[in-house]
Structure prediction request, 211 residues.
Amino acid sequence: MIRVFVVDDHPVVRHGLIAILRYEDGIEVVGDAADGGSAVQLILELRPDVVLLDLRLPVLSGVEVMRQVRPQAPQVHFLVLTTYDTDEYIAPALAAGAQGYLLKDALPDELARAVRALAHGGAALEPAVAARLLERIAEGERGEELSSRELEVLQLLVAGASNKSIAAQLNLSENTVKSHISHIFGKLGVQSRAEAVSVALSRGLVTITRA
Prediction:
């Protein structure tokens, strides 16, 4: 069962998200919060698998929530759900540790798919959002070339696949997959799956598919 926590200061939005997720098999909403301060306290207490997080919140912003929670609960995955698709919001969110970034006009099945991807170690970055962020990446920042195997792994990362799924699809051990991902991060100059997806899409290294 994937345990989800919802953070949004608008009651209609918050309760709407909860209602949507309660109809999804294998997903359980374990709590919710209307401000960043309460969110930090409850997330650390409940330790959910995935947090649906708005960025503009009372008391503490969504970015500050991630900054406070991640050092204490690195196993918690953050899916930002917001109306803002400009890089002034996207870049700080990814830098703070968001593994997913969706806009609030996402369809219910897209939301559920993103929650499942994050819970299994994948990433969920809306293509339009990725495009906004990637305009900032300098053309000259190419780094080392990726091997054919690393490109295969990267393609599956973009599709939201977990390490276990990548291992199964490529007939590799999970340790080998982890090693490939580490090399990919180093060559792309990134520190997270979401950033790797962003850079990969910006450079045309892979195309968007579904795992």
About this structure: Residues 148-202 form a domain with the Arc Repressor Mutant, subunit A fold (CATH 1.10.10.10). The beta strands are 2-7, 27-33, 50-53, 77-82, 100-103, 124-125.
